[in-house]
Hints:
- There is one protein chain.
- 27% of the residues lie in helices and 27% in strands.
- It is of the alpha/beta class.
- It has 2 domains: 17-60; 64-160, no CATH class.
- Strands 3-4-5-6-7 form a 5-stranded mixed sheet.
- β6 (138-148) and β7 form a beta hairpin.
- α3 runs parallel beside α4 (95-108).
Amino acid sequence: MPDLCEFEIKTRIGIDLNPVNLKSTEEALWNLALIWPDQNERINRFREATSLLVDCPLSFRKGPGTNMLNEIIPNIPAEDALIIMHSFTLNQFTSAERESFNEVIARHSIPRAIWRINLEWLGTKHPELKVQFYSKGLLRNTILLAECRGHGDWIDWQLK
């Protein structure tokens, strides 16, 4: 896998079946209300995270992730590094949908490398944060970066 390095983020595109625009005061307040009131640390993390969105250019696409990737990836300039990030998403997919999602990423890595950063909890003791590298149609490498708790209460970095 190539060395990890800093990337300049040029485009941020969120994909969801029902996108939530946390830049909208109304939607942010609704999501804040979904956090149990006794969980002050989660409330503070939410507020800190949403404050970062103020100056963050971000667009949303509504639809299934696999379909949307097929529409979006060809429109990202070939000279730009392509990084796909997802968290607590694949547990909502069927096994066939997960396989299709992986195949789409692999297929789009034929002409260009793709980095995949994911935080998922699929049959492991704790959620796992991984970085994966695809090129020439194959998953070339996976590095386990950390194990963590779903709501960010703790993180155990595996790279020391």
